[in-house]
Amino acid sequence: MTQATSRPRRGRPPKVPRDDPDTRAALIRSGVEVLTEQGFTASGIDGILRRVGVPKGSFYYYFDSKEAFGHAVMAHYAAYFAAKLDRHLLDASRPPLQRLEAFVDDARAGMARHDFRRGCLVGNLGQEVGGLPESYRRRLRETLADWQRRVAVCLREAQSGGELAEAADCERLAEAFWIGWEGAVMRARLEGDARPLDTFLATYLEGLPR
User: Cα separation of 186 and 50, whole Å?
Assistant: First the structure.
């Protein structure tokens, strides 16, 4: 059997080694920063590359296309955010509903640190999904479903501990959390203030069946 030859990547030779994992990771981090501020459609590859110091022709040594780059950025963000959720929602030192409050406190501090310029990457892309590749819609739905599952686990623990009524539909309540949360983040960016986050959390907690 003859060994298949791999298709050469496009672009001129990079100024940095093409297999440098640090450069690829830096591009992804830069992509997260830009996409959480500007979204996908308005973001140009040039600005992202300038932040990292990588020439434009070298971009295709790391990613086959802007679409592939977007997938890498979304995967990175989803993993980062899942770890943040786990840090709070699996914190056995707090009652389950206080863990939700701790997550919101953390998110509030993060948005304030960036002067409310950055939102949720998934929320940003969700708002422009009609103009994005269909594969992005699938990825965004999968990411939200994963976050929803993590909140549902926390709510079921609250239910087992008597913080929620036995009849509470934890999956539905978890879905409602993310629907409301993404709207609150968008409003907080619009107003440049954390008040919408606080309003959402207080209203959500007050409405839980006890």
Answer: 27
Sign of CA dihedral 101, 159, 181, 85: positive
Tokens of 195: 């008040």
CA distance 35 to 75: 13
Query: What is residue 18's three-state secondary structure?
Result: coil
Q: Note the pLDDT tens digit of each residue in 151-184.
A: 999 999 999 999 999 999 999 999 999 999 999 9
Q: Are 60 and 8 in contact (CB under 8 A)?
A: no
- How many CB atoms are located within 10 Å of the residue 7 CB? 7
CB contact set of 52 (below 8 Å; sequence gap of 6+) = 23, 26, 27, 30
pLDDT tens per residue across span 51-104: 888 888 788 888 998 889 999 999 999 999 999 999 999 999 999 999 999 999
By the 8 A CB rule, do 91 and 99 touch?
A: yes
DSSP for 51-101, please give it. Answer: HHT--GGGHHHH-SSHHHHHHHHHHHHHHHHHHHHHHHHT-TTS-HHHHHH
**116 vs 195: CA distance, rounded Å:** 12
Tell me the C-alpha distance between 15 and 53, whole Å.
9
Q: What is the pTM of this model?
A: 0.85
Tell me the residue type at 103: F
